[in-house]
């Protein structure tokens, strides 16, 4: 898969990854209201089994057998170190890593903060939807950029937008009561 195709592929995948933390608490809350807390684990187990089934029986390996690499601990470590030494990989991976770190830090800490503010569990679930929509919107904007310009230029724009968002967020935290 070439660089442009990989970029387009990830722009399809990231909205699903970005919205999953918003949907998960909402689905969990609905299951909890309709059934009991064990229903969440039953749902997760069924979801995992369905995923394993689809991966095993529906998805097929596209890489020819002759081009596949052995799956050994030494090979994994060697390939991982090779990837981490690749400056282009670090450049492409940096912004999603920071974005997801900030996103998941918010998801982990916000229930405690929002509960102290008096929000119910259901409204806390709803609060994640707005944050997830920014991921979807960001991917739609990135897709439109990628149609008109190179991957590098699109990533540069993403870095600028990400830094501007971080600065605006820091300012908002500073001026808010």
Automatic annotation (TrEMBL):
Q: Which Gene3D superfamilies match?
A: Multidrug resistance protein D
The record's keywords, sorted A to Z, are: Membrane, Transmembrane, Transmembrane helix
Membrane as UniProt keyword:
yes
Question: Which Pfam families does the UniProt record give?
Answer: MFS_1 (PF07690)
Q: Which InterPro entries match?
A: MFS (IPR011701), MFS_trans_sf (IPR036259)
Transmembrane domains' residue ranges: 9-28, 40-59, 89-108, 120-146, 158-175
GO molecular function list: transmembrane transporter activity
* Protein name, per record: Transport protein
């Amino acid at each position: 898969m070439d660089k442009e195709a990989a970029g387009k592929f990830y722009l399809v995948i990231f909205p699903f990854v970005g919205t999953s933390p918003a949907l998960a608490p909402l689905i969990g809350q609905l299951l909890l209201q309709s059934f009991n807390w064990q229903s969440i684990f039953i749902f997760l187990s069924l979801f995992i089994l369905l995923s394993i089934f689809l991966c095993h029986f529906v998805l097929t390996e596209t890489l020819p057998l002759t081009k596949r690499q052995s799956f050994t601990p030494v090979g994994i470590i060697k390939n991982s170190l090779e990837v981490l030494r690749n400056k282009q990989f670090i450049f492409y991976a940096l912004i999603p890593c920071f974005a997801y770190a900030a996103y998941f830090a918010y998801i982990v800490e916000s229930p405690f903060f929002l509960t102290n503010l008096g929000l119910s569990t259901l409204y806390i679930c709803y609060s994640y939807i707005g944050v997830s929509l920014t991921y979807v919107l960001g991917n739609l904007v990135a897709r439109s950029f990628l149609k008109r310009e190179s991957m590098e230029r699109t990533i540069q724009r993403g870095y600028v937008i990400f830094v501007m968002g971080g600065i605006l967020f820091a300012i908002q935290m500073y001026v808010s009561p």
